[in-house]
Amino acid sequence: MLLAIKEDKVRKNCLQALFYAFLFSSLFCTITCAEGAAGVTADTKIAVFYPDVRKPYNLFFDNIIEGIKNKTRAQVLTKSFTKTEKTVDTQNWLINNNPAVLILLGGSLKSVVSELKTPAKILYGATFFSDGEVKQKMNGVSITPDPITLFNELHKLNPRIKFIHVVFHPETNGWLIAKARQAATKSRIKLVEHPVANTQQAATMYRTIAKTEKTTVNALWLLQHEPTLDEKSLVPKILADAWQNSQTVISSNPAHVRRGALLSILPDNVRLGEELAKATDKLVKLQSVGIKPMPSELLVINTRTAKHLELIISPTQESKFALVYPRKTNK
Amino acid sequence: MKHFVTACLLTACFAFLSPVYAYDNDDDFSLAEAYGDEEFIYIATGRKQTVSEAPAVASIISAKSIRQMGARDIDEVLESIPGLHVSYSAGGYNPIYQIRGITSDVNPQVLMLINGIPITNVFAGDRSQAWGGMPVENISRIEVIRGPGSAIYGADAYAGTINIITKNATEIDGLELGASAGSFNEYRAWLQYGGEFAGWQTAFSAQLADTNGQKEKINADAQTFYDGLFINPRVSLAPGSVNTGKQSLDVRGDIEKGRWHIRAGYQSRKDVETAAGLFSALDNKGTADADRYNADITYQNTDFSENWDIKAQYSFFNSITRSNLTLLPAGTLGGAFPDGVIGEPDVYERHNRIDLSAFYTGLTNHDVRVGAGFHHQDQYKIEEKRNFYIAPGPMILPLGSLVDVSDTTPFNQEKTRKIYYAFVQDAWDFAPDWTLTAGLRYDHYSDFGSTLNPRLALVWQTSYRLTSKLLYGRSFRAPSFAEQFNINNPVALGNPNLDPEVIDTYELAFDYAASDDLKLSLNLFHYTMEDIIRFNPTTANNTGSQSGHGLEMEVNWQASNRLNVYANYAYQSSEDKETDSNAADAPEQQAYLRANYAIDHTWSINTQLNHVRDRNRAFGDTRGDIDNYTVVDLTLRAKEFAPGFEFALSAKNLFDETVREPSLAPGLIPDDLPQAGRGLFVELRKTIN
Predict the structure, then answer these.
(1) Candidates B307, B365, B601; nearest CB to A315
(2) Would you state the pLDDT for residue B371?
(3) How far is CA A269 from CA A40, A69, A143, B482, in A?
(4) For chain B, N or C: smaller number of CB within 10 Å?
């Protein structure tokens, strides 16, 4: 009996020992894995290549780099690219610095990577991505703003809007529309998608929408970097018709607000940089990143259009916009 | 006319030369696309303000346009405003901002503000008797309201208001250094800094200038006339050159953190020469100096409470003008003045202001603005030395030597004035696309009493492309201390019982965006001025009245990504009701054309043409018409030709046109006041980020 009890105790002790061993080893693993998962450490090097562009475009890259530095513990090495940059010099630079991740900012540097031999993981930023590039499993953060902020704000300003119509070129913006579909649902709005192949089809589609859809519940969303949306001929017509029919137009292109769209969103370059820093972390952890739209909360509103649409914007609401157009006069 | 044709041809050439713009590379294009266009980048980064829809007829000139036109002084910029012509008075060539035909030699009918704070000198009601110009490097934008503004700004926003906004930290890219040199032995240098210092957004600017000034000739002057009265040798300096040399220093600091904004400025003017002379007699010895200090501290809280946005501001302005003038040359008046008629008047004044204003937005569809304030004007010192006195007749008689008459018979008096004011304004969106702005301001002056000035503005967003405005406003001009308190001068005696001048203005304005690249505006106006203050015949009195009407139109055309064309035309017809004659001196028609063509990302060329015509002589002035003129300027600019460097070459009055501004009636300077001929200037600037 005593033996049995002792055996029991021994077993219990053994179990306890096993339990604690498991616990400590788990903890140890968690800590070590966590250290490994952190991936990016103070010793990690991130290289950021960006094009040497004229003012005011240089501000983009300054802000993006500031954002990257805000959110990473890694050493951030930057290198600006002039048009005359030699591949061999870049290659030597990479060999000397041996970064874990190479961030390429701007569209013109996309082609640079094919000429370079580097074990570094590649991340793209501050450029547009086509649907094809997204499907190629490229990693990066697009310059296209995430429409979720736009949809949320539209819902707050005008809860009667139930449908957002978007005319788009699938090969260019298909990936964004897929993301926007989910974003719209979260804002209790249905995204009505109109894929088109060219400007002519787009023009016909905008006319159809204007004729058939009730403007009280249907809004239009104009895209940025959309090959079927001709800025010179189509956009003025869309915006003039929208004014005439009291149709709400939101846009991913902030300059459209100056031309009469109700709402848009400005690029937030610092946040773009921060998102790149997070993506760097994931890449080092061997996690998938893919292409993300740029997160931004910097909304722009046209108060002239808002008044025309009989939307009441409280001062509290107005103060939250990054830019109000036309500028509210204090005189 | 030939110059007009030339400029039109230049513009037309630009238009045909401009194929579709190609960006340097994909990145510029992508990044511009992210914001929609390049201009929006400046707006989004705070480097450019969007245009406000003020319920008034207003024009805004940005720092970019100022630089493109190669302007060195604010007057060159203001000349490009429709309905505004910059003329000059004989004494020191002080600018006369003639707006819609309203003009006078001292020009107190225009209010000039720096960052919303008046820089009016209470002595004469102008900017300073030794103004000496204002450089433009530190200017972010200039907002010009034509028409009444007293319901908001109070006194002197009468014919128009010129608000100069200086650059803040975000508008100066690190450290900027620049220098320029050119004709008339003109040298300028400037240094500007924008950045963050100890958590404060900090901007600093210093601008230096030194010029001998243009030396155009005057054939006869007032002394020529006096020479004819005596048998003694002729002593007039005419024929001779006008004297327009000067030295200037402008320093400004601007710090901002959270709700606090502090600014300070200093303008020094040294050896400002007398141009055609204060008495319309050439004076090659006389000079004037000025020291002007200003400071302001502003607290603005946009979250004061749920519906209140408040702003409190204290500001200080001190202006000292010292003159050393030879009013008539040596040997004048039959040899009675061997050293000439010498006057050394000095005026010291200071201004303290407290302004409180608040926005209330708690009422749906209403934006209510209320405010109140106090302004203390103190002409705290008057000093004068002279070697003459003016006896009734009038006769200028010698004192024998230069005598300090500050405590005996000075030209003016040490005086103060207190002003209390309050205003209320409501912008009421009473229907979709319709806004009615109604404002009323009450000013109480410790000397002449109270004045009430209303304004009404009905703004209709008529269509997607068209905005229409119907405006009414009443404004007043407070009498200056010269008009109230001049003494010991039988030809210009002050009158302490003066009332303010009053103007009622009606305007109908249209802004039309024909396309995204072509914007047009048109306004029609009618005004009536009453109680105009004139020294009539020798004592200041509210005697005059004037009415006028006219139109102004503007076209802004972004012809291509390379070519921008801006043009305006103004017409006015004004009548001096006292004499039943056309109002004098201001042009009845003005046309202005500017084209800026970007050859590539580095090189650009800018040309501007200014045509001034139909200036009437004053009633009783028998001289012939004042000649019309057309001036063409050309500026070639290279940006970033080397990292951080910019270079410009400007030709002002390229065709060396004869330009004359009217001299005072009856014409002691018979051939009017000659302005600068052709001038060439080079500038180089460097930015260090």
Answers:
(1) B307
(2) 96
(3) 22, 12, 9, 57
(4) N
